[in-house]
Sequence to fold (400 residues):
Amino acid sequence: MQLDYSGKKVLIRVDFNVPLDDEYNITDDTRMQKALPTLKHILEDGCSLIIMSHLGRPLKKKKDDGSIDVEKFTLRHLVPHLSELLGVEVKFCEETVGEKATEAVEKLEKGEVLLLENTRFNEGETNGDEELAKQMAALGDVYVNDAFGTAHRAHASTTQVAHHFAADEKEFGLLMEAEIKNAEKVLHDSERPLTAIVGGAKVSDKIGLLEKLIDFADNIIVGGGMAYTFMRAQGGKTGNSLVEEDKIDLAKELLEKADGKGVKIYLPEDSVVADKFAADAATHNADSDAIQDGYMGLDIGPKARAVFADVLTNSKTILWNGPMGVFEMEAFANGTKAVAQAVAQATEKGAFSLVGGGDSVAAVNQLGLADEVSYVSTGGGAMLEFLEGKELPGIKAIRG
Ligand code: ADP
Ligand code: MG
Fold:
């Protein structure tokens, strides 16, 4: 960050989309913690701070009478904790834009912090309404975007609003800078060999990433449910495993393309198979291309764990998106655990490792290994699109 904020009214978009329990207590404040360095950095310059964020999907979950469930989705719930984190009594405005918001901003003094109501209470937010963006922009002298998690959306508060500020009146926050720097390191400035681990449920979610990876990875490790579509592409028998029939040909193409480019794709040789999708299923190990009918692969098996760990510990750059199995159930968490440990080990040996994706990050946190990888991204969809090589609207709006 480079701008001087002294005496300014700073409008900042953060991602405070935190989970709340039934009594509206914050159950995980990671997203607030991640924005904290930026908020503190700006306040140190001696300015006033106007914070915008979304919380949940209030327009998709309206009350029976068609009105917004303000009680449930108001950002007011965050005021006490944010005040505590910043050491400043945070003020709240029940509007994002409008007369009350304008008045609250006018009254705001140096060192004060104002949290505006949920941006998604406004119909125009998610479709990037120009008028809404203009009203938002009018609230601040300068604009900062630190919401990487929504950078892939062209929303009013993340993208359109930035167009109303000159190049020297807007910039990224520290979190956004770190996300971009780490992703660009993997994409453009990586030590070799570079190994990408791609897992999760479906090939269809990760096609863009897989295609891009064939252009720049040395090794691609495929695990999770999507591995079985690849097994079928190779003529294997996958029993009741998750297979996307309409993606088998695509998997075949990806395998051929990788082969042509000298990129090595590692599929799990064996799997932990189960007779039902449940924590208490009867399980055994089987070759991933010879799974009996009535059984489904829910995790990579011991042979695959060993091969994958070996590839990873010999890698210099690692990108991980998607768990190796249904890690939410302990019986199918060993593959993800083994991979996480191998990534941590490689990192200790000097490799650069980046983990992205909501569930992959949850798995790494659950295993207590978040501090043992180089970077844990806060952006699921945003990181995926960035790595696919797409230009994210929230980033473009600042960079121009
Ligand atoms: P991320 O959020 O890290 O990008 P995804 O959302 O793509 O990951 O995938 C995560 C989900 O994939 C998890 O809920 C996990 O249970 C599921 N999954 C992993 N392996 C399998 C499998 N073999 N069969 C079915 N679902 C799986
Ligand atoms: Mg997910």
In short: The CA atoms of residues 202 and 226 lie 5 Å apart.
